[in-house]
Structures
1.
Amino acid sequence: MSQITREEVAHLARLSRLALDDAELDGLAAQLDVILGAVAAIREVTDAADVRPTTHAVPLENVTRPDVVRPSLPRDAVLAGAPQAEDGRFRVPQILADEA
Amino acid sequence: MSSTDLTRRTAAETAAAIAAREVSAVEVAQAHLDRIAAVDDRVHAFLHVDAEGALAQAARVDAGELSGPLAGVPLALKDVLCQEGIPTTVGSKILEGWRPPYDATVTARLKAAGVVLLGKTNMDEFAMGSSTEHSAYGPTHNPWDLDRIPGGSGGGSAAAVAAYEAPLAIGTDTGGSIRQPASVTGTVGVKPTYGGVSRYGLVAFSSSLDQAGPCARTVLDAALLHAVIAGHDPADSTSIPLPVPPVVEAAQKRDITGLRIGVVKELAGEGYEAGVEARFAEAVELLTALGATVTEVSCPHFGYALPAYYLIAPSEASSNLARFDSVRFGLRVGDDGVHSLEEVMSLTREQGFGPEVKRRIMLGTYALSSGYYDAYYGQAQKVRTLITQDFTRAFEQVDVLVSPASPGVAFRLGEKLGDPLAMYRQDLATIPSNLYGGPAMSLPCGLSDGLPVGLQIMAPTMRDDLLYQVGGAFEAALPAPVPSLSWES
Amino acid sequence: MTVPYLEALQEFEPVIGLETHVELGTNSKMFCGCAAEFGAEPNTRTCPVCLGLPGALPVVNEKAIESTVRIGLALHCSIATWCRFARKNYFYPDMPKNFQTSQYDEPLCVDGYLDVEVGGETVRVEIERVHLEEDTGKTLHVGGATGRISGATHSLVDYNRAGIPLVEIVTRPVTGTGERAAAVAKAYVAELRDLLRGLDVSDVRMEQGSMRCDVNTSLGRPGEPWGTRTETKNVNSLRSVERAVRSEVERQAVVLRSGGRIVQETRHFSEATGTTSPGRSKEEATDYRYFPEPDLVPVAPDPAWVAALKAALPEPPSVRRKQLVTQLGLSENDSQAMVNAGVLDLVLATVEAGAPAAEARNWWLGHLAQAANSAGTSPDELAITPAAVARVVELVASGSLTAGLARQVVDGVLAGEGAPDDVVAARGLAVVSDEGALGSAVDEAIAAQPGIADKVRGGKLPAVGALVGAVMKATRGQADAAVVRKLLLERLGVSE
Ligand SMILES: [Mg+2]
Ligand SMILES: [Zn+2]
């Protein structure tokens, strides 16, 4: 049985901001199907049901820093890597969608 | 002394010679730069060589401004760690030309220790791969056989060490990216305890798994490097606030009498090459002969480590790699005054990322999606707990666990490129330690068909010293094989 | 065709909900040491962490955790014993990592309430959650006619604000308010603002964006399930909160009456028209793909520490208000006038900042109330703090400012020229009592009005007032009138 449809792959590509072309979509749909088939084994692990998930390999808690100001980067260094900058700011092309 | 001799020395020998003023750090650096110039067009371990910076740092050591156990020793830095002002690409087109405005903590500690940074090494793009073939800048070649892969993702670091371009290198290990390259290049590679080495400035692939560690030709060299880079860092919230385990002392102990060693039953059989299993069996015999008590141990959930890893790591990666969006740094494609920002972001990511990276971003986006989260990402995190419990129970019975580091020897370039699952299976034996967080080492245990085989040692968290104790004793009894480098002549 | 608000609420029952974002007044940002300050040059308060550069990692600001717990306690919430940060994944250029480090199913504080007074009655607004997250950068849209996103040719991003700690306070749906819905919404936000000010966790300046509200509104017919809600984003003044509810009620009533359906959507509030308009919707529902933030470890507030914070909370604003009114001996009429004008808390805060009660009252019921009125805003949204008013009062008391100059200083502060002392310096408004400097103005006044000068010389002393007025006018009010009078009399050879 197929794990993932081409439409789902196209949706994932939009969520991931990847402008995949048709051939790539087809290829990825097939590859993801195979990979998802392989990782589906994880769903067989029935003794996982009552287990607490591990999100962190180290059992640390409450790691914080004092509320102290440290120097920021010089603005030249901040903007040096920018594809485009203007008036001390990062310049981007026109934005279509509103903020979520 | 000839420059060949300088490059053949261990890091410990080189550091001692420099400290004794038998040789200058500048001479050592120059010898390695010459070596890189001579062989790297064939090995392609480096993406960037910083001759000027290396010589300047060496001069500071010679001037007595910097000192320490590794002062003046050259090192190759995996291109996933930020070095201020030096190109850092992570093997990706999307970061081509980017020069970080800051040093990773590991980089800063190396500089402060007087280590001489030669340059940045090649890697699978964003550390996703087991062959270095997924580098956007072309593959690295295994010094044992240039037609073969040097492992990955840290193939550049391992190959640089194996080809005598550097006595030391830094790798990073998310699912085996230090140990599998070490295994197939006949070098020593260590993934420290997660949280033992700061991740600050390490370009993230999978935050809960990534860990930087040493690559070297000897166990002691690896330990010396481990001691320089490890230790608590307040800039990394997951950094463990405890003293570094006594790795250097352990490496020098060379005694494992009475140590309890467990052979992991599940890390054998199907998927492991016969030659690898044969060398591993001999290694186990040798450990017994050295006075260790060897028993078989079962870790029943290890079989699910690979699927758990291939859900957790891509999920975290899909989020970590979202910042590569053409706004603040890196590549921008399609900014023609017509395309919107959304389109420019999508075009940039489409062209800037290679196929394996896109595959994993898509997989991770899927696994985190509402409706699939519980079945995939959530379930994988639970399996991670079970794997951790397997380790915890095993370490109630034994002090360390052993297995082959990699299921096979170095395969041919191109052999597995069309089959992602075959590539993923290279990490069968290394992934469990990443999911658990404990330290693990690969060190040479002989050859199969003339190619190196790696022995993996796994220890409990923050017992990195045990790796070095076992590794040091094993290496003393069975010195690492030396590559012929016949392609040089 | 609109349905008037009151008429709409005779036919439909409103449900409102408020999500309020508050920037904490910490020294440094949420996850890095950059200064968390308003108004710096673009991108000068940024570092690898808050720019989301490859490799950078966050570390939690302990003060932000403390402030959030104190807010939760002041809102009668339970404080989590263990919780985590989560990543909220979506692409937007003002968000450096393209995920927001926030909290999802494990907020720091849950299940509280805030009582508000509306029309002499107490309404309990239930709080669902209070959680901690990070603010985004600021985007400037260039090339469009309005500075808005539509029509812009490109945009410019400043990340100074990115990573400033942001507390999100979410109410449960508020039902049964009927025609008071808009007033309750406004009163809730006002009370919340006063509470946060009392906790000293934020400067809660809605006009500067350090407190921002999203207002949810729905209408349903009595006895039927709640209607579909809309979310009006970034409503940035108390007055607008009220207007946003009113306009959504009126708009939705029209749709519902004509048999239409309300679309669940994000809407924008226009200060200019007082109405909402639909946001540009995406073609697909967003899936934020929340998961626990692996770069941060869990937060487990120590119950003893939480208890200590609780014990040290200040009195809530309602109690403090009553105490102060009594202490200052304000009459019932006085305090009622101040409540009606919406300045009671401002007066009290000005007194707390050191001004005499009478002066504070006069400023807020007088010049400042007028200023608010002519600006079409409420007094608490004026760009002047009670502390600044107290400073002006102090300058007058010390003789550095005359009453006229003080009004000019206040107008300067309102115009965004800085703190009172900055305005005094920049506008050169200090009282001039230097006799040499006034001499020429005095001579000119005498020369310009020889008839009046003669009258004074002739012994008609009260006539000197006209000359004093001329000098004051010539010096734009900066002269000390007593000194001017003395000088004039000297020059005219008259003694008192
Ligand atoms: Mg929020
Ligand atoms: Zn910062």
Note: Residues 374-397 of chain B form the longest helix (24 residues).
2.
Amino acid sequence: MKLNQVVTGCALAAGLMAFAPQSQAGVVVDNGLYATVTVKLTVVYASSCTQLKKASVTNKQILSALYPSVKNLTLVAGVQNTGADGDVFVYDTSTKTIGDDLTALGELTINNNEFVTTSKVKNNGGSATSNGTVGITFYDTPSDNQVDSEDASANWFEVSGVYSAKASQSVNKADTQTSIKVSAQANELSGQCQITPNSTVGKSDFLPIFGSATASGSGKLNNL
Amino acid sequence: MRPKIVILVLLAGLAGITGIVLIKHQASPLVPVATKEIQAVAPPAAPVIKNDEPMAASPVIPTPVAVAVPPAVTNPAPVLPVVADLETNAAHEAEVQAQIDKLQDLQANDDPASLKAILTELGNSDQEVRAAAVEATIQFGDRSAIPVLKDLAATTTDSGEKKALLDAAEFLSLPTMTEVRAAEVPAAKPGQ
């Protein structure tokens, strides 16, 4: 879900569009704000003894599929002034640096379709809410299209559901800094996945998967 | 009667009537005076503004609206606690957000110290931080947290939090996708 759309609406309402380098609290890198993304999914599969079993998928499984030997990584989504707002990035918590743009690589994509939005404008900022549907796709070996990506990937999932998001921002009295806070959640995601290619785990190629995803972040960006 | 006497009587009567009229005229002066005072207080008639005249050219009309000046604040004291409350809330929100940010960093780690720090926050006094700690525990993915989650669920009175803790414990008890894949891929190889 593109949180930046919510924030952008907020920023437009407040007449604030430009920011300058530097950072403060939260995941703020190069004066760009990122929201931490968490994925919590459950896969249902049939075991060899024909019993249904479950397996879990979290950020760590996604990241270990992409970066098997790297630790201290997490997922973040660009919110404001990141150069690719709405994309999902790898964030190294130990070095506080932004890594690969997974959305640009076709590996992890979050897309939302906004149905309802509201916004409030205050003297020094505003707030906005957004509701709609969201789709999240993950392919460890992305290809040109969905079918090819599914075929090429050892691990992939495609889930969708309803989301709700809210954002707020305010400018300090000196008009030098903007505080932004965003949060979004999709509690009832469902879709299909594949754990391994040609696996004995799944008796069918596509396994059901369900769960939730959240994104939240806050920080202060310096105004131009 | 002699003509001289008749004329004298008529003149006396005329003089009497004139005197009465004059006295009556002087006995009712309040009405016009009062009217004059009211007219002085009332605003002058609004000038007719033609459509093609700019509004700025119209004279300012004094009206009772001028009374709409804010009343003098006789007791500003109640404003101060409100401002103080807002500042306190903002400081509290910032503190909570900092704790959540910290948890989101810790959940990416794999070391016991990070897990201990996360589990400590399960008992935080702020519900928002506790909820973030539950999510961080899930994302951290260490099954040694399961007993802690269950113990907390047993002592938690809030039904929502109890469910969240038990759900987290159940989720952690599942094999991860990585574990399933690691277990299945070697098994699949002989058959290939």
Note: The helical segments of chain B are 3-26, 30-41, 79-106, 112-120, 127-140, 146-155, 159-173, 177-191.
3.
Amino acid sequence: MPESAWEQCISYLQTELPAQQFNTWIRPLRVGDCSSTILQLLAPNRFVLDWVNDKFKTRIEELLNDQSVSRKAVEIAVAPRIEGANLAPIASAPPQVSSSQSRSPGFSAPDRPSIPINEQPNNHNIIQQAAGRSGADDRSPPQSRFVDEYQSAEALNSELQQTDSNSRSSELLDVDGNNFGRGYVKRRDVEGGIEHKSSLNTNFVFNNFVVGKSNQLGLAAATQVAENPGGSYNPLFIYGGVGLGKTHLMHAVGNALVQRKPGARVVYLHSERFVADMVKALQLNAINDFKRFYRSVDALLIDDIQFFAGKERSQEEFFHTFNALLEGGQQIILTCDKYPKEINGLEERLKSRFGWGLTVAIEPPELETRVAILKRKAESVSMHLPNDAAFFIAQRIRSNVRELEGALKRVIASAHFTGKEISVELVREALKDLLALQDRLVSIDNIQRVVAEYYKIKISDLHSKRRSRSVARPRQVAMYLAKDLTHHSLPEIGDAFGGRDHTTVLHACRKIKELQESDADIREDVKNLLRTLTT
Amino acid sequence: MNTKTPVQLSLNVSLRDDATFANFYAQGEANAQALFALRSVLDGQSYDNVLIWGARGAGLSHLLQGVCHQADERGLAVQYFPLADVRGYTAADLCEGLEAMDIVCLDGLEHICGNSDWEQAIFHLYNRMRDAGKPLLLSSHTSPPSLPILLPDLKSRVLGCVVYHVESLGDDGKKMAMIARAAARGMEMPADVATYILSRASRDTAELFTLLNRLDDASLQEQRKLTIPFVKSVLGREH
């Protein structure tokens, strides 16, 4: 068994190598194709591949050949990411185990559900109004040639080798930044190879979606789809700026579908993975497995569809998948940062189809919703967030929910660390970097330029030997700022000011420090200059 | 597959032995909080993505490498990439499959800003790490809102990280850090020697600690204590 030889090999390597090297380079490897003369190891990416080839391959071969009478060569390759697609995307039920196994990176191809989960659409006035822009009336059936292609692919698929059933369990991961540090699944050890899970996130449900004016249409639409999948609102196209909760809504529909029908096959994935899987499927001549996989689901949820732009082959494949799913009454939900017609680099036929169902926008939340989101998130981790502190954060972080949540996490971490209650003061301190755009990366040249401008003197005056007060004081201020804001040594600072001695710099720094205590003008000057240089 | 293509391994992903948490002089509450946050990630208390930022010499690389050392001790798979030095590899070469790691540390985010391939690769990596329930730890020498990231999807994710400012040590802190690190190496550094070093040598923390290594070597060879005349003579030598 090559795996057992490899297992023995890694147990040797574990004792030979420092833990850091073993964990970084050896643990992610896993066994690929094997023959009597070759053991193929799969690395997660080309960088690991190169490193292992360069540093460890010879030793691995030695260890393997010590254990065997026949010599075996080691070949290291990049693992095809397509295997991630084996991750039984079905969010609830485990995949059916196929009768035979193959090493080919096919997809766990679950049978098409015998009973579609869709029911008769239940039209809803609000949603119909919202759909006005989507052009739902111009819906036309998919062209027959695509149906033909799909059918022929299905026929071909039936002859294909059964795919690897060694798919990882469809355990649901309780992750993402939207969770406030509690209740995550335990970390899994990496046992080599690529794990690419993209199943539903059970944290994203309707119950914890905070609704406001900006997203109420989106929520209503998503609720409708959850109740009537595969009906009139197919596809559901949710669009809006970054970090506004599109992904949350999408998962919420998926989770609701699974809750309503525990056997439902609901696939969530990012568009990047669809593209990557397709590329690998083409490389490995497994495109039919790919087609079968994506066409056999009850609901397909694809996030950030704008990343299909410019990827023509992926668009074509998605077009066929899209038609097949629509034809089969399976629900499609897509998110995007733009309205369909505005996506550059996307084929017109796709843009048009994206508008067949229901298109809803999610807008940035208004102040009250931002406050409500903050209060709700704080509550979820049993933290008391006073109204004034919530308003303080919400008034300053306006762009999107993700950033709002990141800021709140920082505030909560600070409260935990200091053992203090959340207050405006604590918020101000915890978020000062985000709020003030403070940036202390300044050069001596920049300091000299700003100081010279401020005091209306020439930069050359700062370098000169002149000792009149009108020049000497600004020079001292500039030296003080150079020491405060840069890492240059005192001799280097002296050099930058016309080759002065480090003791002159030291004197200047002491002088300005003293003057700030006694002279309001100098204090004001330094404050203004610091503000100019650090924002 | 590029198994046959020889590629120069130009990316230095080796960790500095001395870049450990124990060796990090966490002066002030801000730095202690950053350290606490990173420890929480290692302890599994938090799976938040964390971004630490600060000026050069503040110890960002030190902290991320400290995470790697700690992760190793706990048997976690961790990958550290200094983004300032990724010659010879594309973004996809480095980011592909990294979600197999338990923790990924990307040091110097500012170096890839404006490079659309890198921005997209890190954006996708962020999503894959999120889907796999694993934390991404980032560092930047620019304050996060000032990072010139072009891809809005990445920008919002970076700003959605839990952000900690690692403050540079002031002169007093640098003196204390030098004295503490010298003590850890079995050398006694009097306060006046630390003051002397700070007023003559580079005040960059990394360079100060490099100088400390030189002083350690020289004092061992010459069997001398750390005095001002001895430090002066070492500073005057070519190295």
Note: Chain A touches chain B through 85 residues (CB under 8 Å).
